[in-house]
């Protein structure tokens, strides 16, 4: 039963990737050149993997391993990841797969589903289609909390650096998530900076800076790209309903 479910997951991911390619409209030169609106990220976006990133963008941030501390190296060696699509529940300890834990930030970007920005005067909401993940990014000028509550997605504050770049800092993560699908660990000291730069109307560049003095020797940096999908609406994807049944991971 478990093997069948996992194979079904792999097929679902493949079908999704194929459908995305089919739905993506051909971009005209005029559309690609349309200027970005000022201080506005509103809309549904889908991560795009540039040609040079196809081999690894779906599992981790860079081809090169990050420089990890001895603590993190030991934890990483214990990780039995699910990268590759075919595996049994008995052979992985990926918390997203075995326990349906939320992926957390920044791992949520490795799931092949869109996300949406909703802007208000006091905060920006990020809605992720995968498992109804919601992030509230405060934009009311408050600082990062010095002693944050530890949660799956952390506490986020954001600011506009200029008319097209929105900078988000997030702290306060629990240790129950992985940084990526390969199993790179983090501690509650992790600090994630995301720079969302709208390069034109339809394209978004996301620069990541991940620091964690307990897990990383130096900051881990990477860049992702996303495309606006104006005709899309977020659907419903639930780990505990669409991927796994509770009886498969209750222990």
Provide a descriptive summary of the structure in words.
This protein has one domain. 29% of the residues are buried. Helices cover 20% and strands 25% of the residues. It is α+β, with helices and mostly antiparallel strands and 251 residues long.
Summarize the amount of helix as a percent range: 10-25%
Nearest-integer average pLDDT:
83
What's the end-to-end separation, in Å?
16 Å
Task: Characterize the biggest β-sheet.
Answer: 9 strands, mixed, barrel
Write the layout of secondary structure elements.
Blueprint: H1 2-23, H2 29-33, E1 43-48, H3 70-78, H4 95-98, E2 115-119, E3 123-128, E4 133-138, E5 155-160, E6 165-171, E7 191-200, E8 203-211, E9 220-228, H5 239-243, H6 246-249
Parallel strand pairs: 4-5
Antiparallel strand pairs: 1-2, 1-9, 2-3, 3-4, 5-6, 6-7, 7-8, 8-9
């Amino acid at each position: 039963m478990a093997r069948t479910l996992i194979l079904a997951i792999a097929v679902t991911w493949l079908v999704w990737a194929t459908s995305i390619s089919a739905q993506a409209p051909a971009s005209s030169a005029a559309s690609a050149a349309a200027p970005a609106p000022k201080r506005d990220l509103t809309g549904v976006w889908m991560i795009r993997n540039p040609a040079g990133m196809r081999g690894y963008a779906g599992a981790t941030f860079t081809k090169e391993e990050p420089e990890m501390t001895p603590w993190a190296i030991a934890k990483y060696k214990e990780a039995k990841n699910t990268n590759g699509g075919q595996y049994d529940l008995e052979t992985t300890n990926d918390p997203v797969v075995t326990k349906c834990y939320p992926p957390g930030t920044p791992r949520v970007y490795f799931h092949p589903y869109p996300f949406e920005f909703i802007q208000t005067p006091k905060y920006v909401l990020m809605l992720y289609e995968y498992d109804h993940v919601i992030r509230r990014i405060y934009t009311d000028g408050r600082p990062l909390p010095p002693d944050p509550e530890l949660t799956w997605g952390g506490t986020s504050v954001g600011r506009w650096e200029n008319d097209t770049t929105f900078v988000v800092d997030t702290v306060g993560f629990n240790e129950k998530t992985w940084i990526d699908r390969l199993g790179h660990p983090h501690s509650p000291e992790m600090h994630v900076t995301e720079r969302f730069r709208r390069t034109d109307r339809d394209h978004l560049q996301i620069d990541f800076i991940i620091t964690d003095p307990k897990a990383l020797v130096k900051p881990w940096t990477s860049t992702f790209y996303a495309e606006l999908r104006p005709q899309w609406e977020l659907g419903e994807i639930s780990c505990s309903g669409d991927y796994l049944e509770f009886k498969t991971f209750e222990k």
